[in-house]
Structures are given as C-alpha cells and as structure tokens.
Amino acid sequence: MPELLIPFFINLRLLDIIDIILVAFMLYELYNLVKGTAAINILLGIVAIFLAWRLVRILEMELLTEILGAFISVGFIALIVVFQPEIRKFLLLLGTPAFIRKNHRRFLFWKIRYANDENLSIDPIVQACHKMANSKTGALIVIGKIHELEEYINTGEILDAKISEQLIENIFFKNSPLHDGAMIIINNKIKAASCILPVSKSEELPVHVGLRHRSAVGITEKSDAIAIVVSEQTGKISWVKEGKMSPGIQPSKLKTLLEEEFNPEAGSNRQ
Fold first, then answer.
1. Other Cβ atoms closer than 10 A to 19
2. Annotated domain spans of the chain
3. Cβ(115)–Cβ(231) under 8 Å?
4. Is the CA virtual torsion 141, 259, 117, 38 positive or negative?
5. What CATH number was assigned to the domain covering residues 122-270?
6. CA of 32: how far to CAs of 104, 241, 269, in Å?
7. Does the model's pTM come out above 0.70?
8. d(CA 181, CA 198)
9. What digits encode the pLDDT tens for the residues 99-125?
10. 133 — phi, psi (to 5°)?
C-alpha cells in the first residue's frame, strides 16, 4: 500500500496542492450551506462514493472501479435532481442584493440570507406554552432555523402572521379547526398551522409516546428545526432537538433553551 502511493507524492506539483486545498475549501463551504438539512446525508454519501472510486482506481481494482464509475458517470445529473431546491434557492439569492448584507451566512465569497436573521419573539411562545400546559391543551410548535421547511408548510394553512400569545392559544384551542397538526414558525413569523409532519420510527421512543410527540421527533430528525410539544394528557412541555426529546421542561427552562438556540446574544447580555 505505501509503495503504491510513493509515485503519487513524487509527481505532486504545487498546483496539485493548491487544487486539493481549493477543492477541500469548496467542500467545506458546501457542507456549511446544506448543514442542518436533509441534503447533508446525501452529500456525505456522494463524497464517500467518490473517495472510494478514487481509491479503487489507485489500487487498480478493476471490477469495483467499473461499478463505482457507473455511479460517478451520472453523478452530475444526480446532484441536480437531489439538490434541486438548494441550487434553486442559491441561484435566486445570488441574483438579489440581499446576499451582500451583514450578518448573513456565507458561501465561498458570498453572504446568503437564510431564515431566522431576525431575533425570535420568545416570550409569547413561552407564555402560550405555559398557559396551554396548565389547561392541558395539546400543542406542537416547530421553529425552523436554516431549513425553511417549505414542504411541510405547504401541507397546512398559510398564515404568515406575527407571533402572539393569543394567536398561538387560539390556534391550539380544542374547538379550533387548526388545532390538529403543527404550527411552523420561520423567520419570526407564524408561517402556517395544521401542518403534517413526518412521524419518527425510532425504536428508542417509549411505547406510550403519542403521534404529536413522534411527529416532533420526526421533523427534528429530518431538519435542523426545534420542536416544542405540550401534552394533552399530562400538560407537560417537551423540548425536541435533533431527534432527542426532553420531557417535563419548565417554562423558565424553555425560555433559556430558546434564547440559546435563536437569540444567543440576548441570553449572554442578560447574564
């Protein structure tokens, strides 16, 4: 194995080193662009196939080279199909002046605007959850970060409303036509209510966990969103992040967690 790599290092030029550094930098920036979305797992899979293909070519393993080469040959088309939403969003943002504003996320030399540029209105959410917990009113609130959750927003009723304690309580009131499903908050706006979310199939969840909690875990498994669940049976508040559920969260703790996720500067100033 080391003997096979010796010719590679002997023939390595300065331009080859620069080429490798530039490719690594672009892959890192691409990773930052899709981090927190469902596309990241697909991207890592594509990179793994490409690296495996290069390795078997160096080792002259002809059969594996042919098999993996078949995947690589259609890789460009596959990238366009798989990453169509991300590519479309990037090109749209690149053609608008919004990408040069300060405090936006970067891609290579550009800064791109994403969800949650505006600080989240935390107090109305916490107060509404506290009241719904006391009255045992079931609720499921999803707050998006980088991933804008458009595919799930489109399954519900579009609101695009300002966050308020009264509105949240009215939406989840038991006789409200929108109380079933999830409320989705993006960029400090209630984008939609009564949304349908993917249900987690994780075997780590307790058997008694209901559909509302499984949906909260499901959406956080497939995106970078945060979910808050108020149990209709117990009145307890649950915090869900990255597919992990923390039940029995007090309102004061909920406020701290939201500040850490969405308004870190406000949380540090308060301390």
1. 11
2. 2-82, 122-270
3. no
4. negative
5. 3.40.1700.10
6. 13, 19, 27
7. no
8. 11
9. 444 334 444 444 444 444 568 999 999
10. -65, -40
